[in-house]
């Protein structure tokens, strides 16, 4: 590459520490994002600062403390993202390409990282949110925030955005290779658990009709190609095909809901039902997360294990996320090269 290029990897974010004060600050910033809780400002303010944050902070801080212990005193999300940044930079060691990393919420902040990128005077900036499936609450929010900062610059370079990469072979292979570490045939059921979204947020993808009117569980079409539900199902089909899985072996489900009006089926309810049906061993994937985090290590690896045991099951085995797998780095390198 002859151009001077800056690449901005964006992850969701993490508290600076498991302390109540840091968790509270993180939750406020995260939940006050209008793309995350898409209700009018004053209603969101009352809900977040008056109800959710005061009641959720102490419980969340305890959970983050467990997560830090699993991460040897540090956020696993931050650790893996830093590793990905370093490994990807090595792929461009002989080229004028600089890899940067920022968190949508908290640190390293997008403001500080983008200011460094502004001063570097790049000819091109590639914005690459680390969310395989597009959702307004993740990719949309990250790009929105980056553009909000960049639009204030006097000089705006060529900007390229990678909006999703759910079907990139490198990303799919990184998950498949993780799965091959386990004896898949020894599990009674396989779960592909994606982070949940309110139904109204996937409905907003369409100019007419609702998500349920667009066969999102069956195929990718011109209309649903940016629907989170549709790309989640397609991601699963691509992984299943490479692993030789049949449809009766697995289910697509959604976790981390706040109420009953989120995308179904709910992962925790599926786990509970499988336990009651006499299933003993479950293999769980989490393809919406490229780095292991609270939702994978604690929610699936811990909470779902408890639910399963309480209902007669024995083992919920989490398949690690892509993390810093070489094939995932291949994916990111290819996305950068094709965007430049």
TrEMBL record:
InterPro entries: Ferrochelatase, Ferrochelatase_C, Ferrochelatase_N
Keywords (A to Z) from UniProt: Cytoplasm, Heme biosynthesis, Iron, Lyase, Metal-binding, Porphyrin biosynthesis
The organism's place on the tree of life at top rank: Bacteria
CDD domains per record: Ferrochelatase_C (cd00419), Ferrochelatase_N (cd03411)
Example of a GO MF term: ferrochelatase activity
Enzyme's top EC category: lyase
Gene3D superfamilies: 3.40.50.1400
E.C. number(s) listed in UniProt: 4.98.1.1
Location(s), subcellular: Cytoplasm
Major place of residence: cytoplasm
Binding, Fe(2+): 195, 295
Gene Ontology CC: cytoplasm
Pfam families in UniProt: Ferrochelatase
Function: Catalyzes the ferrous insertion into protoporphyrin IX.
The family this protein is said to belong to: Belongs to the ferrochelatase family.
Protein known as: Ferrochelatase
Protein encoded by which gene: hemH
């Amino acid at each position: 590459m002859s151009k001077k290029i800056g690449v901005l990897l964006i992850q969701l974010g993490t508290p600076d520490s498991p302390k109540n004060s840091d968790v509270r600050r993180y939750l406020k910033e995260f939940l006050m994002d209008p793309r995350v809780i898409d209700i009018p400002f004053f209603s969101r303010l009352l809900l977040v600062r008056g109800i959710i944050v005061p009641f959720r902070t102490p419980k969340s801080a305890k959970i983050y403390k467990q997560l830090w212990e699993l991460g040897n005193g540090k956020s696993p999300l931050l650790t893996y993202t830093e590793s990905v940044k370093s490994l990807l930079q090595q792929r461009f060691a002989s080229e004028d390409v600089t890899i940067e990393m920022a968190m949508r919420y908290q640190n390293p902040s997008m403001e500080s990282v983008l200011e460094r990128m502004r001063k570097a005077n790049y000819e091109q900036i590639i914005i690459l949110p680390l969310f395989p499936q597009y959702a307004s609450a993740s990719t949309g929010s990250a790009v929105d925030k980056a553009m909000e900062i960049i639009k204030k610059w006097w000089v705006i370079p060529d900007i390229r955005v990678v909006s999703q990469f759910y079907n990139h072979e490198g990303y799919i292979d990184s998950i498949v290779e993780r799965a091959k570490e386990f004896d898949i045939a020894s599990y009674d059921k396989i779960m592909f658990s994606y982070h949940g979204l309110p139904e109204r947020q996937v409905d907003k993808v369409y100019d007419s009709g609702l998500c349920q009117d667009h066969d999102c569980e069956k195929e990718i079409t011109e209309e649903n190609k940016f629907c989170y539900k549709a790309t989640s199902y397609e991601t699963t089909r691509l992984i299943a095909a490479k692993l030789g899985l049949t449809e009766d072996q697995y289910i697509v489900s959604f976790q981390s809901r706040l109420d009953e009006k989120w995308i179904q089926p709910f992962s925790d309810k599926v786990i509970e039902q499988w336990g009651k049906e006499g299933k003993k061993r479950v293999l769980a994937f989490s393809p919406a997360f490229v780095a292991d985090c609270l939702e994978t290590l604690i929610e699936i690896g811990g909470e779902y294990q408890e639910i399963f045991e309480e209902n007669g099951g024995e083992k919920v085995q989490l398949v690690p996320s892509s993390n810093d797998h070489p094939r995932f780095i291949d994916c990111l390198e290819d996305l950068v090269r094709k965007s430049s």
